[in-house]
């Protein structure tokens, strides 16, 4: 069973591992009327995820403007800001992360990794066409996630 004190969570290993599997792999989900997977979050958790998504959109805006102005420094800085390092701040609520289904977590992490790749491209080659292609791949992941998941109370 998951036991949390503040943002620190651990599993009581005396508990049935079938619960752990369901909890970690499936997260806290239900099927919604529009056939997407509804991830059940409280108001605070939902606000946290939506804030992260807004940050990704702000980075996409900055990258797009940076490409249009051929300013690879802007592209790089915006991309690093939401790269994999953004997920390692230590401020992520572990109870929230545990509620997210594994596929959602995988999509989330791939977006952050892809922003790191985008930043490296901007710093090394600086090819706007390649960067735009990488940005398109990131947006495809966003679209896939939004097509498959939604948040509910």
How would you summarize the topology of this molecule?
Elements: E1 2-5, E2 8-11, H1 17-26, E3 29-31, E4 37-40, H2 43-68, H3 72-81, H4 94-99, H5 102-124, H6 128-148, E5 149-152
Parallel strand pairs: 4-5
Antiparallel strand pairs: 1-2, 3-4
Helix pairs in contact: 2-3, 2-6, 3-5, 5-6
Molecular structure report:
This protein is 63% helix and 12% strand. The two termini are 22 Å apart. With 153 residues, it is α+β, with helices and mostly antiparallel strands. The chain is built from 6 helices and 5 strands. The protein has helices at residues 17-26, 43-68, 72-81, 94-99, 102-124, 128-148, and strands at 2-5, 8-11, 29-31, 37-40, 149-152. The protein is elongated. β1 and β2 (8-11) form a beta hairpin.
Quick summary:
This protein has 153 residues and is of the alpha+beta class. The chain has helices at 17-26, 43-68, 72-81, 94-99, 102-124, 128-148, and strands spanning 2-5, 8-11, 29-31, 37-40, 149-152. It has a 3-stranded mixed beta sheet with strand order 3-4-5. A two-stranded antiparallel sheet has the order 1-2.
Beta-strand content estimate = 5-15%
Percent helix range: 55-70%
Number of helical regions: 6
Give the N-to-C terminal Cα separation.
22 Å
List low-pLDDT spans: none
Shape: elongated
């Amino acid at each position: 069973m998951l036991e949390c004190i503040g943002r620190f969570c651990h599993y009581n290993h005396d508990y049935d591992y079938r619960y752990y599997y369901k909890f970690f792999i499936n997260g806290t989900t239900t099927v919604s009327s529009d056939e997407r997977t509804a991830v059940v979050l409280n108001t605070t958790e939902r606000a946290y995820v939506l804030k992260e998504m807004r940050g990704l959109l702000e980075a996409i805006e900055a990258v797009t403007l940076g490409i249009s102005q051929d300013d690879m420094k802007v592209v790089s800085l915006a991309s690093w800001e939401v790269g994999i390092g953004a997920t390692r701040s230590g401020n992520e609520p572990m109870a929230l992360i545990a509620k997210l289904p594994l596929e959602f977590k995988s999509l989330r992490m791939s977006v952050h990794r892809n922003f790191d790749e985008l930043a490296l491209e901007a710093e090394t080659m600086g090819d706007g066409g390649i960067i735009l292609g990488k940005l398109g791949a990131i947006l495809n992941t966003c679209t896939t996630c939004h097509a498959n998941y939604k948040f509910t109370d």
